[in-house]
Amino acid sequence: MNIHEKRLHDLQCLLKKEKLDAIVLSRPLEQVFFTGFRMDGMVMLVSRSSAWAFMPKMLLDQFKSKVSFFSAAAPESLLEAVILKMRDGKFKKTIFEPETETYLRGRFWRKKGLSEFRGLTAGLRLVKEGEEISILRQSCRIAAKAFGIIKPRIKTGRTEVSVSRELEDIMQAMGARGPSFSLIVGFGPDSALPHHDTSARPLGANEAVLLDFGCVYNGYCSDITRTYFHGKPDKEFKKIYSIVEAAQKAGVKKVRAGVKAAEVDKACRDYISDAGFGQYFIHGTGHGVGLEIHEAPTLNTKSRDTLRAGMAVTVEPGIYLPGKFGVRIEDSVLVKKGGCEILTK
Amino acid sequence: MNIHEKRLHDLQCLLKKEKLDAIVLSRPLEQVFFTGFRMDGMVMLVSRSSAWAFMPKMLLDQFKSKVSFFSAAAPESLLEAVILKMRDGKFKKTIFEPETETYLRGRFWRKKGLSEFRGLTAGLRLVKEGEEISILRQSCRIAAKAFGIIKPRIKTGRTEVSVSRELEDIMQAMGARGPSFSLIVGFGPDSALPHHDTSARPLGANEAVLLDFGCVYNGYCSDITRTYFHGKPDKEFKKIYSIVEAAQKAGVKKVRAGVKAAEVDKACRDYISDAGFGQYFIHGTGHGVGLEIHEAPTLNTKSRDTLRAGMAVTVEPGIYLPGKFGVRIEDSVLVKKGGCEILTK
């Protein structure tokens, strides 16, 4: 049984546990998770004991050659095929996930008697296991190594966008498929914008450099941020950097199974607030990483999530001084029983 | 007035014309279209005379510095801020677009009295104009030029994935931000799978090579497919190639404002069917390209769309012989009054 078959089996067990008969999966993301097959335009139906995939004709041969544990067909109407199969199987309680389905299709499912049910597949993706962990670890290692390679190449006069492109190249050369998001490279005051749009700005002789990047490796996303000063840092940069560094360490130290995600946020936030810079830490502390660059759980003040062994999350506090510079330090970590493993190292 | 302001103005005119008071925009794609600002996590409300953007605190400074024609705020709850603003403005008929909104959020809007309305913003994106066209043209030129550069470098033994990566590099060096989709490189029998997942397969001495690729340049997607034979083509390849080539030309020749999209499909399909290979042309003839790699209109047998001047569409018939090879030829073209302009040249 490969990892995808195992996940399908887990989903089927969950259906039984929740007293559900079947679930429709419309989104490529969930389809990849359960089949290993990347493709737009499929609709899937999973019951407690069977699984079907309906797709355009042109995908059929390719799908069949790769995925044996779903029955595949290319009917005239994919949606009607799901409904017919539901009726054939006498599935009374079939669900869709309202947080990912479009309103238009969700309305169709409702009309056909399906119910809403939130977070079933997201719950399965929450805890990473087996080869997933080693893939994620490798994805993070590639990113961490790339920083070591790019740093000495970032010289005065280089543009943000040229550094971003070279980072992508370096990670691809190590086996990554591509970047895991639109990489953020910010020089000088650009580093003070947490979601800066990487520009053609050249690096000045004495400026902050912020790199927020990651790659997709075998489908899994990594996320890392490194900040440093190009040239001779002044007192202010050194001070802010040491505060963020200590806050990030405090956050990472807090991460272990059983701890509330909000407590990790609090550890970082308290440290920065106590140092007098609370108002300049203007975002949450972190988020889950996996098939998506941002997924559950959420690490911020309002989070109700509790960390569980096998979750992969980022810890990324920052201080942003508008018009001057920003410092953010981020690692992706794997939650364990007594603590955590830093993946981006 | 820049292009984004103009689009906002067009949207506001459309609200008046459709007798609507306001529209909520939840998706980054529409937000980029109307603001030029790329960012997740915003919600926008546009009325006939005003426009608001609600976002997390960390985006606020950045947004304000770039977009002056939306009122920006970072309220506690983005969704509630929309509702409050609706009440303040006494907007009776406020809509959301059910084809892009998630079911969960759509249900929230419904509960709050908003109505569904399909295709309002997609309609605005359908016809390209002004600098949009020159950007799209440049995006397509980069892709077409990249083929000329990569072709002589594709030698026996090179893997599909290495060619895919080099194509990305070549396009990035010409100013592209990245690939416009997961590029398809298929050698030999892999070329017979229309949506082949580019693999580590090395190129044999005498094999078909299919490259389906494109880039994102200034936000706009290009799409092109080229097929050729590496080595000495046999009679069968030559025959199939010449059929697809003639079918594609017949399709392109059909493209002009006022023609039904289904007629373009028919032109390609009839040619291939008449040659005896209809059963091996297993997909539609084309689709719109723009901010999305697949957007309206649709060019297939069932399409009810009519081509209009300024639409940008692909024409991409193919013949796929399972286990042997496939040939697909694709150009992105701009619909004009009396015909079309081939963009991928």
Architecture overview:
- The structure is a homodimer of 345-residue chains.
- With 345 residues, the first copy, chain A, is of the alpha+beta class.
- Chain A folds into 2 domains: 3-126, Creatinase/prolidase N-terminal domain (Creatine Amidinohydrolase, Chain A, domain 1, 3-Layer(aba) Sandwich); 131-342, Creatinase/methionine aminopeptidase superfamily (Creatine Amidinohydrolase), CATH 3.90.230.
- Helix content of chain A is 37%, strand content 21%.
- Chain A is built from 10 helices and 19 strands.
- Chain A has helices at residues 3-17, 28-35, 57-66, 78-88, 103-111, 120-126, 131-150, 160-173, 235-254, 261-274, and strands at 22-25, 43-47, 51-54, 71-73, 94-96, 115-116, 178-179, 184-187, 207-213, 215-217, 220-221, 224-230, 286-288, 295-299, 312-315, 318-321, 325-328, 331-335, 340-342.
- Chain A has a 6-stranded mixed sheet with strand order 4-3-2-1-5-6, sandwiched between helices.
- In chain A, β3, α3 and β4 (71-73) form a beta-alpha-beta unit.
- In chain A, α7 packs across α8 and α9 (235-254) packs antiparallel against α10.
- The longest helix of chain A is centred in the middle third of the chain and has 20 residues, at 131-150.
- The first copy, chain A, starts with a helix and ends with a strand.
- The mean pLDDT of chain A is 95.
- The A-B interface holds A 37-40, 56-59, 61-62, 96, 98-107, 116, 118, 165, 168-169, 172, 178-179, 182, 193-197, 282-283, 294, 320, 322 and B 37-40, 56-59, 61-62, 96, 98-107, 116, 118, 165, 168-169, 172, 178-179, 182, 193-197, 282-283, 294, 320, 322.
